[in-house]
Amino acid sequence: MDVVRIFDTTLRDGEQSPGFSMKTEEKIRLARQLAALNVDVIEAGFPIASRGDLEAVQQVSQQIRTVPIAALARAKKQDVDAAIEALKPAAMPRLHVFLATSDLHLQVKLNITREQALEAIGSMIRYGRQHVGEVEFSAEDAGRTDIDFLCQVCRVAVDAGATVLNLPDTVGYAVPEEYGAMFTKVREFLGDPQGITLSAHCHDDLGMAVANSLAAIRAGVRQIECTINGIGERAGNAALEEIVVALAVRKESFNVTTGIRLEELFRTSRMLTEITGAQVAPNKAVVGANAFAHEAGIHQDGIIKNPLTYEIISPQTVGVPARSLVLGKHSGRNALRLTLRDLGYEASDVELSEVYRRVTALADQAKLVRPRDIVAIAHEVIRRRPAPMAAESTSAA
Ligand code: KIV
Ligand code: ZN
Known about the structure:
Layout lengths: L1 E2 L1 E4 L1 H5 L9 H14 L3 E5 L5 H13 L5 E6 L2 H11 L5 E8 L2 H8 L3 H16 L4 E7 L6 H14 L3 E6 L6 H15 L6 E6 L6 H10 L4 E4 L13 H10 L1 H4 L1 E2 L7 H12 L16 E2 L2 H9 L18 E2 L7 H10 L6 H17 L5 H11 L16
Parallel strand pairs: 1-10, 2-3, 2-9, 3-4, 4-5, 5-6, 6-7, 7-8, 8-9, 11-12
Helix pairs in contact: 2-3, 2-12, 3-4, 6-7, 7-8, 8-9, 15-16
The structure holds 3-methyl-2-oxobutanoic acid (KIV) and zinc ion (ZN).
Zinc ion (ZN) binds next to loops.
């Protein structure tokens, strides 16, 4: 099976969005966890942006020796010099040079011609290669770039020495078929060159970053750029945890693998929320608080009989300690009986009915019934019964 490499840009694209900035020590802590997760590349920052960013890339480079470290630079000498300086201590440095290639960006933002863009791309990659062994080139706004010009850009980048070609959907405008077709065209144009990795980098403005990344994989892309919890510019980047779990759960469909240690996903997600203070939505796939929580009675009953009825991933696979059967107004008696056992109560049928009546009445008033509410009710109803400790794996949230 082919391997898809995971390029994590949480510390760069993720960090450059509002509310997600990190101190150097925090970046180092998260970088260690990304190494434990076994990502293939850590993009640690954009050194020209500030002295702090440059130092953070240096520190991450010094301390994380087992994973290639990337630093971003525009196709400008002062940017490339700053990235080279920041990457000096790295065991496996990667210089990441980018330039926008869509006519809109060339004309409005950069005020340069296509020819000038090709010249800047070629010269800065050649210059970078004199100092850093591995150079990646990104054609910013590739998703809205004229395809013939994009092919030319890729040819120039490869000839200048780039070995990774990243074609971002910078503004999250692409749809999966289109984004995949762009890579197919570029691959055909380049004649499938050996030693060149095509890379996808998707933003989520239309909620399609993960779908677009997966479409790129189907079109032969073997590096995916993504972030933990999908953080990043505007609506964010493709979420790392969603991509790698989709590839694992549907491996017969994609026929590729990654080196990611799935059981580290939840820990990594939690570490990021702890560092930034920004919680993920409860219904977020894979790592959200509700991703393995079941409230509806019919679902709870199915889960108790066989988790495969309503879970396509087991919580343990992604490092979530346990699923939870949440008691609310939609819950059933089976889940209540198990929750009571977890809390140390063995109810008779009559007692269970009474606890159920009171719990559903409470659930009608409150959004959620907490374990301490259930204990209070059970204590009144099942007071005289000894409390054996149950060994069920399910628990109330
Ligand atoms: O979204 C984008 O185009 C980027 C590039 C700089 C890689 O983040
Ligand atoms: Zn981006």
